[in-house]
Amino acid sequence: MKQIVLSNILDTKSYPDAGTEFCGILRETIQDNETIQIDMKGVNSMPTMFMNTSFGKIMSEFGVEKLKKVMIFQNITKVQIERIGKYLKDYAEVYQITN
Hints:
The protein contains five helices and three strands, in the order E-H-H-E-H-H-E-H. It is α/β, with parallel strands linked by helices. Helix 2 packs parallel to helix 3 (48-62).
């Protein structure tokens, strides 16, 4: 299992650049048939521009279910869970991604 502290990426880059870097990590995780533990400690916000360049791009390539299966969150708040869940659901509906 891979591990990442998401705030380390978000604190050092713009949101689109952080999303692109995180997307690469997620892609590698999926291609290696692994899971990734994502530590949300210190993450204050996850704007749409970050999620588009990370979660959105991965869902377009691999599907929603594949993305969900590889991620394990740690130190995540209820608000963050709801925000990510809503984003995944809305993105899948808008772009008609089902697998």
